[in-house]
Design a protein that fits this description.
It contains twelve helices and seven strands. The chain has helices at 2-5, 7-11, 69-84, 88-91, 106-114, 128-133, 145-153, 170-181, 189-199, 203-207, 210-223, 230-242, and strands spanning 15-17, 28-30, 48-53, 94-98, 135-140, 157-160, 185-186. The strands form two sheets. Strands 4-3-5-6-7 form a five-stranded parallel sheet. Strands 1-2 form a two-stranded parallel ribbon. α8 links the parallel β6 (157-160) and β7 (185-186). The longest helix is centred in the first third of the chain and has 16 residues, at 69-84. The two termini are 29 Å apart.
Length: 244
Amino acid sequence: MHVFFNVFEKISNKMIIWGNSLSNENYKIKLSPSLPIIKLEKLKPGNHCSILFVECLKYLRRFNIAPSLEHKIDFFNDLIQFVNELNPEIKSKIKFRVKKNWGFNAERKFSEKFGPEYIDKASYKNPLKKTILNSKLIITTYPETSFSEAMHYNIPTILIIKSKQWALTEDSLDILDDLKKNKIAFENFNEAKNHINRYWHELDSWWKLENVQRSRKLFLKNFFDVKSDWFKQWSDYIYSIRQT
């Protein structure tokens, strides 16, 4: 409800956020995302090529900051072609994870086109973290929390986005340009396909490049800056407002 009527702003004195925001700085308090630091070098790498997909509402109820249904259908069709053009070995490792069914029923459509074995069903027992850690490569199709979490866990990740269909700030566009320069983000499915086909067997030779990791850290610093002491940061803030 708050998305449409700004109810949080009407009932709250403060709002906790984790990304940089230039609007109403006195009202918003920036704290670390509450996500544990994981040392992935001690974990066995996954082998899935996970594709994270999100639907949009069938009927618009307000000015949209994300792709419309028509845009999403075109994107879905391009995504199907993209998967079909991946090297067969990579295609066999694909797992589709759909955030929620908003009426388009993308999960069912993916299952019909590729088979139920290609579906990684979201559930309480199968959280996003498990999908990320079971993946050799994450392909996310929307610039939201799932992309940020994959970048945080430092799993090889790419974002495929049509930036003109999203309401992005100038600062966000600057960082997106940096991600595109380092092959973390793509506007073109064909370029993404060529990159994945080229590096699938040696993803670290790209992902661990100094410039790629610098670009990743720049994104995280601005949008998902997880602190190792996030629990103390949150508890200190909550304790401080209890004293006022």
